[in-house]
Amino acid sequence: MPARVDALEQLLRPHSLTELNENTAGAIGGLMLAVEQRCAVSTFLTTSTTILWLVDADGKILLAVEEAVSIADHDSRHPLHTHFPLLPDMAKLGHPALVGAAPARIGGEIYFDDGTTPGVWVLTNKSGRYGINLRRKHSHLESVAAVLKRHNLNVDVQMF
Known about the structure:
The protein is built from four helices and nine strands, in the order αβααβββββββαβ. By secondary structure, the chain is α+β, with helices and mostly antiparallel strands. The strands form two sheets. A six-stranded mixed beta sheet has the order 1-3-2-7-8-9, with helices on one face. The protein has a three-stranded antiparallel beta sheet with strand order 5-4-6, with no helix packed on it.
């Protein structure tokens, strides 16, 4: 269970929520490839927003862009920009929103590191509620990377 949950994270799921499976892996891989090839639109989107991932209690890998939602109007939402503060009338849908604040195995963020040649996608356990604690080990993160690889999604692993 997450240590902390905001009320809207129990109630709402991100509009961008995607389960990794044989039907979605190609589209996710296409986005990753566009970023790797330095497509300006794709690169801008992935560097200005945080991509969350989580393994739910059943072992499914879920991905979503971190979204901001209007506290008054739950349907009004947008990707949370990494360089701008959350507005006072908005709430963040973090990792717990991916599973309705239910238990999950491990979670974190995925980002493209263009500081290397070639650039690489990096899978982290950077989640204050599902990723960074003593019960999550490097081997758990490596297991998630292995599942991604089976879907032809290659990532490096970075443990926090």
